[in-house]
Every structure is written in C-alpha cells, then in structure tokens.
Amino acid sequence: MVTVRGMRVAGERTNGAEELLVPAVDKAFKILDVLKGQDFEFTIVEIAKALNLNKSTVQKLLVTLSYYGVVQRDDATKRCRLGMSLAEYGSLVLSGFDLRRAAKPFLKSLMEYSGETACLGVLQGTKVVIVDKMEPPTEIRVNPHVGWRFAATLNVMGKAILAWLPPDRLDEILLREGLPVRTSKSITERAVYEADLRETRERGYATEWQEFHDSVNGVAAPIRDHRMKVVASIAVGGPQFRMTKEKMSDLGKKCIEAAMEISRIA
After folding, report:
1. What is the mean pLDDT of residues 102-131?
2. Average pLDDT taken over every residue of the chain
3. pLDDT tens sequence across 153-173
4. N or C: which end of the chain has fewer CB within 10 A?
5. Residue 71: how many other CB atoms lie within 10 Å
6. In this structure, which CATH number among 1.10.10.10, 1.25.40.20, 1.20.1250.20, 3.30.70.141 belongs to the domain 17-88?
7. What is the pLDDT, as a whole number, of residue 12?
8. CA 114 from chain center: how many Å?
C-alpha cells in the first residue's frame, strides 16, 4: 500500500500557523508561487503588482533567491523565472517517493495501451500535484508538466480522489477551491458536481468531457494508502476526437486495474 507519513504538506493550513510565519520567508515563497504561474516569466514590476508589494522589497528578495539559484533573471529581458536549483530539490523529493516508483511501469503501460498521456497525481491539502507522467510520441497529445499544482476540483484527477473522501473533507475542499470555470462544459453547480462524484463511485473511475479543456477528455481512478484512504489518482487524457465514449469506458477500467495494483505494491 502507499505509505503517506504524518507530515503537513504545502497547501494545508494549520490553525494559528500564519502568526508564526517569518514575513520575509513568506514573501519569498509568494514570489515563487507567482513565478510558477501560467506565464512562467515575470518582471519585478509584475511580481510586485501581483503581490501588492513594494518594488524595492521584491527586488531585494529576488537577489537572495537568485543567489541560491532558486530564481533566474534574464539580463536582456529583465524577466524572472524559476531557477534550476528547484529542479534539483524536486528531483530529490521525487526520487524518494515510493508511490511514484510504484506507478511508473503502470503509467508506461497505460500510455502504450492507449496511445495517450498517462499521469499520476497526489492530493496535497486542497490541491492535486502531478508527480509523474508518460507521454506518447504523437504530435497531438496532452502535455501537462510534472509539478503542476491545481485545485482538486479542477479536473478528472481531482474527481477520482474527491469522490471517495469523507463528507467533511470534501466540503472543506469545495468551500476553499470552489468549482473553477474553464470551458462551457465545466460543472459550476455544486449539486451537479456531487452527483458526478456519486456516479464516479458507482462506476469506479472518474470521467471528464471537455470540462477542463475544450478539446480534451480524460478518465482517472483512485489510489489508496495502507489505511485504504484515497490519496492519489492515475489518469489518462487525450484529444476528444480520439477519446471516444467506448475508449473512455475501456481506459477507465484499465485505470482501475492499474490503481489497484499500485495501491497493493506501493
């Protein structure tokens, strides 16, 4: 089974923790949060505006972050981006991640069987983080990046986890993250979303029909830890013209099989 040690992860809030935060460190991490956004590169002015901070404060923090390689600044464009030191830290974390090691052959198998991208996501607080993936050698494919952290209510990987959470935990996540609108098919009503989760439990896997991206469908199944608690999911996603109803049904069952094996051996 998956071993999840009793540690607090990023994204979880502990009562009163904000009072113990070191202001400079807190601001530095908020800068990193901005830099991992969709645009990836920002000027000092853009960072300061996003965080409502003084420009000189941001500049001083960036000097320190750059010194340790956590942030890189392009002298020509004056834009900042995340540095390679973070990749080193992330590599060390992932290399010691039992779940990732256990799932890798199943990701590869799902990718080869389906001809689509297979992903592994882990619940952290109210977010899901993609910790590994396998992509097919096709030109048109889903291409998420490892390390992407998003609201658990955002896509199929989160659905496959939320469907099996206790009601109070589900309520906490829904209240904090809401139901993000990404396409015309995104589920925006809580009653409809909860009905979808009930259907997910009945069939054993979650589905997504262009709810996150206009041209992408996906399926995902839950992975359990040694206490039989759902802590992660394994998913397959691809362009909707290839991910037909029949293929989705077949891949949903394949994801269930993979998830059960990962839960057993990790």
Report:
1. 94
2. 88
3. 999 999 999 999 999 999 999
4. N
5. 23
6. 1.10.10.10
7. 44
8. 21
